[in-house]
Structure formats: structure tokens, C-alpha cells
Amino acid sequence: MTSVSQFLLNRSSEPRLRAPAPSKEVLETVFSCAARAPDHALLRPWRYLVIEGSGREALGELFAATCPADADDAAIEKLRRAPLRAPMVIVGIASPSAHPKVPEVEQIMSAAAGMSFLELALQDAGFGVMWRTGAVAYNPVVHEGLGLGEGESIVGFLYTGTIAVEKPPVPRPAVSEFVKHWPGEQR
Ligand SMILES: Cc1cc2nc3c(=O)[nH]c(=O)nc-3n(C[C@H](O)[C@H](O)[C@H](O)COP(=O)(O)O)c2cc1C
């Protein structure tokens, strides 16, 4: 088995994170890995925003601004504090463009593949990572505040930093539960 497979078999998302965040050098490497995602017609249909320090507070204000007028204080405060769960939040943005052979859905899938490569590269560099979305990812207030353009969407927020407390193991499904041969076993 290759070391890549071994790494994948052992990886987990980690929600409990603390400083320090990945360095500039680590970011250079992991974003280069993200850019290796499969990409039909090489459209590069993705971009990323790195948010750290007080930028996380500004992101929290955007999240809080998505609350309806009758939301209770606890709910607003929870959203306001959400980005503080890690020292760095990376926003993955799908940025599709019109193409005669590559539908939008393929471009969004490519952006999601890039996000996944980014998550794996950060984990390979020793950092904890948690890919999150929630309603805020689909809210126009957040889109406008983060400067998303027409047709762009948020693939997710990658919360990353140093692992504070390791998560207990997640049960994984047996391969036979989600893989079948079609039209039948050939061997
Ligand atoms: C697009 C996407 C959005 C997600 N959003 C959330 C989220 O908002 N909150 C959450 O707890 N987990 C979310 N997850 C799941 C976690 O990132 C993680 O995959 C899950 O906790 C399982 O952990 P594992 O990666 O160790 O298997 C999301 C995953 C994906 C792919």
C-alpha cells in the first residue's frame, strides 16, 4: 500500500483547534496541492480567502448578520463566535465560468475536489482541519460581505490550526455497503 493510502486510512477531521495556524510557507504548499485537483478544460474554477486574527471577528459579524430579526441573543452570539473555533478559517469559493463543454456542476465539483486536496495537504502537514458549511455558507449577506461575484458559491469553510484535543475515531462503513459491480461480478 502506498503512503498516500495509508495516510487516507488514518485521517480524521478535527474540530478542536488552537493556535498556531499554518505558516505562510505551509499555505504556499497546501494551496499548490489544491491546484492539483482534477479540472476539466483547466478552467481553474476556484479561489480561496484566508481569514485569521481579527479577520475571524469580522467573519463572525457577517455570520451574526444572517440571523433573522427575532433571533435570540444566544443564537446570534453562537454565530458571532463560530469563526473563533480555530486560529485560521479558509473559505473555498467555486468560481465557475460559461464553457461549451464543462457544465457548472463539473466546475463546482472541481472546486470541491480542490478543497478536499487542501484539507488533506493541511492534515499531511500536521494540522487539524474541519470542513464546515451550515446555513451561513448559502446566505447572501455572507456572500456579499466576502465579495463573492455573480455565479460564485461557497464550497465551505476550512477551520484549521493545531489539534487541541483529538477526536474519538469515527466508524467507517464497510466497502461492501457502498460498492457494487455492474452489471455483475466479472471475475
Ligand atoms: C461540504 C461539507 C460540509 C460540511 N459541513 C459541516 C458542518 O457544517 N458541520 C460539521 O460538523 N461537519 C460538517 N462536515 C463534515 C466534517 O467536515 C467531517 O467530514 C465529518 O465530521 C466527518 O469526519 P471525518 O472527516 O473524520 O470523517 C461537512 C463536510 C462537507 C464535505
From TrEMBL:
Pfam families: Nitroreductase (PF00881). Residues 16-161 form the Nitroreductase domain. Its cofactor is FMN. It is an enzyme of class 1 (oxidoreductase). CDD domains: YdjA-like. Its EC number is 1.-.-.-. It comes from the Bacteria. Keywords: Flavoprotein, FMN, NAD, NADP, Oxidoreductase. Gene3D superfamilies: NADH Oxidase. Belongs to the nitroreductase family. This is Putative NAD(P)H nitroreductase. It comes from Marinobacter koreensis.
